[in-house]
Amino acid sequence: MKTHRLKLAMNRYAFHWAFPEMLADELGLFEREWIQVEWFDATPSTVVNKGSMYTDLLNGGITDLYHAGEWACINRVLDSPESCIVARSPPGRGTLNSTFSLYAAKKSVIRKASDLAGKPVAIEEGTGSYYTTLLDLERHLKRDEIKLVQIGEPHRRLLSLLHDEVEAASLLGPWAEIADAVGLREVLRTTRRNPTTTVARRDRDPLLLRAFFRVVNKAIGKINANPGRYRRSYFNRVKSILVEMPEEISSLAPRLERRISVPRWKPWVKYTTSDFDRTYGWLVSHGLSPDGHRSAEVVARYSPDVFA
Q: What is the per-residue pLDDT for 259?
């Protein structure tokens, strides 16, 4: 059979979002589907606009797809008609997209979400951390009381909190576990229900996309069945970032290796018009997306259907 090439971009500082794909490649699951993955290192050296970065990677043919929070993907696709949202992976118990929390310094007077009125909270604009934080805080604060500050990647947000540059920071996955290890205080845990979604070019082969999701869902099944089995592979990637951080963080590596957990994932399923309508309505009502767009501009319409 003919081998099909698939291009994937990976940001080393956010590897946790691509771990199922990376594990699938390590285990040879792509090869069994006659897919050869070409990885591109998309790790930014500075704080960048992630929306522009991933849109450019997709439109430039550097990657065939990427995933991010649903809100972010809707806005990115509306600005890039060559792309569409194909699939969603919803939050669930222990899933990566359910681990977002707001943390405050151990000596901070911040004890609860309402204490953050007018206080700077570290996020990354145009990503899940921005929308998740806004969604969570608006249950406790008025919109004009919420002060979100663009800091960038999760490890940068953690450092900004440790250096007293902000009053709180949005952290997730391994960075939330590191925050716990250094004694930072969890102020608010997310209740988000919005999924992580996958964006692809409209001209991609739907059969290749179908094989991709079949492979990644197999890897997700393996992770969910026995996450501890893949802890070393996962933690080695965490460790490669820890060595770049101050000693108070990097010195925790031996202890963290025993406590870092491998997040679960819900399998990827088809993204639908009803998914779009619900979230787009929220974005418009909050002034975060322009009104007047339709699901056909965002939701994938491949033939044959990727999830047939």
A: 85
Helix, strand and coil in the chain, % to nearest 5: 45, 20, 35
Show Cβ contacts of residue 155 under 8 Å, excluding neighbours closer than 6 positions. 13, 175, 241, 244, 245
Does the pLDDT of residue 1 top 80, yes or no? no
CATH no. of 100-189:
3.40.190.10
Q: Over 80: is that where the pLDDT of 306 sits?
A: yes
How far apart are the C-alpha atoms of 303 and 308, rounded to whole Å? 10
Domain range 4-94+194-239+264-297, its CATH number among 3.40.50.300, 3.40.190.10, 3.20.20.150, 3.30.70.260:
3.40.190.10
The vertex-28 CA angle with 9 and 96, nearest 5°, equals 55
Could you tell me the two tokens for 292?
Answer: 């007047």
* pLDDT for residue 220: 98
Q: What is the DSSP track for 81-100?
A: TTEEEEEEE---TTBGGG--
Q: What is the pTM of this model?
A: 0.95
pLDDT of residue 13: 92
Question: If pLDDT is split at 50, 70 and 90, which confidence band does 278 have?
Answer: very high
Residue 291 sits at the vertex; the CA angle it makes with 286 and 295, to the nearest 5 degrees, is 105
User: Is the backbone of residue 264 left (phi > 0), alpha (psi -120 to 50) or beta?
Assistant: beta
Q: What does the pLDDT average to over 281-296?
A: 97
- For the chain, the domains span 4-94+194-239+264-297, 100-189
Shared fold status for 4-94+194-239+264-297 and 100-189: yes
* Residue 264 identity (one-letter amino acid): R
Polymer length of the chain: 308
